[in-house]
Amino acid sequence: MALRAPSPGRLLLSLLGSLLLTGAVAQVSIPTFGSRVSDESEAGVVEEVIGLFTDRLRRAVRDEGITVNEGELITPGIAGSLDREYARLIAELDDSRFAVSGEIAQNSAGPQLREPYVVNLIVVDVQQDRVSDLISRPLANYSITFVANDLAREIVEFMRQATELPSGNAGVFVSSEPEGASVYVNGVRLGTTPLPDVLLLRQGRYELDVRMEGFLPEVRTIDAREGMTTIEHVQLAPLTGGSILVESTPPARVYVGEEGYGFTPTFIPAPPGTVNVRLEREGFKAVTATVPVRNYRTSRLNLELEAVQEPLIYWSLNRDQQIFIDGVRQLGGYARWIRSGRATVQLLRGGTTRSFELFIPERGVYELDLETGELHARNPG
């Protein structure tokens, strides 16, 4: 829905908000790095190196025109965690869009090396939910300045890869039910619903992505029009999940992880995403398939199992009867120790015995009908 452009006062507030957001792009939190040592006698030396290195790194990043917050409230354990979620916490506690989590550790090859330490760090962008690869450099006392300058360039390069939205006079207001969902426009995270201000963008088409834990993400294309405000209200659907119809030839036991769901054909309830379904049956090779599951939908999986031997004869499982082939009792749902040619089958059920002759082919997979004594080819050789 499109409305007239916001009032001059609201427009000014939104523009100020955009300017503040742009300024936040150039802020990064670099707390004092953590340490990791195997020789406790080296702990004091490493702490001294950390102090010198962190100071040089901050200075090198500032020389690139970036505002550096020093994370004075961040503990060494969080600062040196190299964990994405902890790095996000660093940024949030230090009121920064970007944050660095880093450590200086002893080089695992030994302190006698020319470079006895190694620097490890990651950089996160909380606004666009990005994280860098682990960046590592060997370090020695004589190379602190060189390594700090090198890693500063890596940090700044990651920051400059951030995508910014073009500003203009096309308004977009985003809300959702329920509230508190994260809002992304062209991959840029802009906060949570309801957004406090109208977004002011350049006229054009944008991808709106609204997501919240426990709900299906809603992705749509919006048209931002010059001088108008488009209102986007998103109704998020809860993640209730779907189901999988599993079928197979022959019927087989169905498992998801260690949980069993009986024999095929059967339905499996599942959350949205992908599910690994495993089928097992004696006499056949187990098979696993990955099945996509969509909300409120039924996915279908139909598999033909491969026999472990040929010829192979199988039958419907029935615990009330015993089966003998040429006098050998057959346990389970397929015939073991059989050869091609004529064979005698005996069925014992409820105190009665029934016998019939059977011709076993040299190759192929067959289902034996225990009522009629007929073989039905499933995979003839």
Can you put this structure into words, describing what you see?
This protein is an alpha+beta fold and 381 residues long. It has 4 domains: 2-6 and 164-235, Immunoglobulin-like, CATH 2.60.40; 31-160, TolB, N-terminal domain (Rossmann fold); 242-304, Immunoglobulin-like, CATH 2.60.40.1120; 312-377, Sandwich (Immunoglobulin-like), CATH 2.60.40. It has helices at 8-25, 43-62, 76-79, 84-93, 144-160; strands at 2-4, 27-29, 34-36, 67-69, 98-106, 117-125, 130-131, 135-139, 167-177, 182-185, 188-192, 199-201, 204-211, 218-224, 228-235, 242-249, 253-256, 259-263, 266-270, 273-280, 287-293, 298-304, 312-314, 321-325, 328-330, 341-349, 352-360, 365-368, 375-377. The strands form 7 sheets. Strands 2, 3, 4, 5, 6, 7 and 8 form a 7-stranded mixed β-sheet that branches. Strands 1-15-9-12 form a 4-stranded mixed β-sheet. Helix 2 (43-62) packs across helix 5. The chain starts with a strand and ends with a strand. Residues 3-25 have low confidence and may be disordered.
CATH class descriptor of the largest domain? Alpha Beta
Q: Per CATH, what is the topology of the largest domain?
A: Rossmann fold
Q: How many runs of DSSP E, i.e. beta strands? A: 29
Principal-axes geometry comes out as: elongated
Question: How many helix segments?
Answer: 5
What composes the largest sheet?
Answer: 7 strands, mixed
Summarize the model shown.
This protein has 381 residues and is α+β, with helices and mostly antiparallel strands. It has five helices and 29 strands. A hairpin with a 2-residue loop joins β26 and β27 (352-360).
